[in-house]
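Bug #77: duplicate submission created two jobs. Keeping one. Sequence:
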Amino acid sequence: MDSVLYAFLWFAIALIAVVTMKFAGGWVLLPVVLVIILAFIAGRIREGW
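Kept job's structure:
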């Protein structure tokens, strides 16, 4: 994947996380962040470092 596309994806994900936290409360953020980190690691491994 392109690094620009990755940067845009991360920006969008961060924005969604902030909005979700605002509406649903902070307790939602922890599992969301964990899933995002795991998905990122899995994506990097699949592409190759």
